[in-house]
Amino acid sequence: MQVQRLFVQHQQVVLYYVLTIVPDLADAQDIVQETFLTITRKAETYTLGTNFPAWACTTARYQALQFQRTRARAAARLDDDVLEMLYSEDASPPDNLEPRTEALKNCLDRLTPKALELIRLRYHLGQLPEDIATTVGWTPNSVRVALTRARQILRVCVERTLHTA
Q1: Cα separation of 22 and 7, whole Å?
Q2: Does pLDDT of 35 surpass 90?
Q3: pLDDT tens digits, 39-82
C-alpha cells in the first residue's frame, strides 16, 4: 500500500518521463497505468527510503519498451537498441521536466495556428509528414521544412523561457 501511495505522489514525474520516450499523451498515460500495475505487483522488491521516482521511471522505461515492441506503429517506432542507448539502466527522471513542460505549453500557445496544427498532427496524432501533406494540401518536403521551423521556434522559446525564469 505504501508503494501505491508513493506512485500516486510521483505519478506526474513518471508521466513526464514517459512523454520523453513516447510523445503521444494517450499512449503515455496507458504506459503509466501499466507501470502502476507492475509496481503494485512488484511492491516487495522496492526498498522503502530509496529513490522511488528513479525506481518507478526505470519500470516505466521497460513498460515503454514493451509498448514500442507490441503496439507502436512500425513507422514511428524507435529501434530497441536506440532506446536502450538513450535510457541507460541507471536512468532517473531529469529534475527539470516540470518547468520545461510548462514552458513548452506556453510556447505552443505562441505558435501560428498553421504551425500548431502541424505539430499537433505530427506529435499528438502521430502522423508522418507524407500523411500531413495530404491533410493540409502541401508537399511532404514543405511539411518537413515547416515542422523543422516550428521545432526550432519551440526550442528557442523554451530555452529563453527557462533562462528568464
Answers
A1: 20
A2: yes
A3: 999 999 999 889 999 999 999 999 998 887 776 454 455 555 65
Q: Output the pLDDT for position 31.
A: 92
Q: Could you tell me the domains of the chain?
A: 2-86 (1.10.1740), 97-164 (1.10.10.10)
Asked if 25 and 126 count as a contact pair (C-beta separation under 8 A), the reply is: no
SS3 labels along the chain: CHHHHHHHHHHHHHHHHHHCCCCCHHHHHHHHHHHHHHHHHCHHHCCCCCCHHHHHHHHHHHHHHHHHHHCCCHHHCCCHHHHHHHCCCCCCCCCCHHHHHHHHHHHHHHCCHHHHHHHHHHHHCCCCHHHHHHHHCCCHHHHHHHHHHHHHHHHHHHHHHHHHC
Within 10 A of 107 (CB to CB), how many other CB atoms are there?
A: 18
Cell match 508513493: residue? Answer: 6
Cα gap 32→38, rounded to integer Å: 10
Find the mean pLDDT for residues 15-37.
87
Cell numbers found for residue 35: 507501470
Instruction: Give the rounded distance of the alpha carbon of 14 from its chain centre.
Output: 10
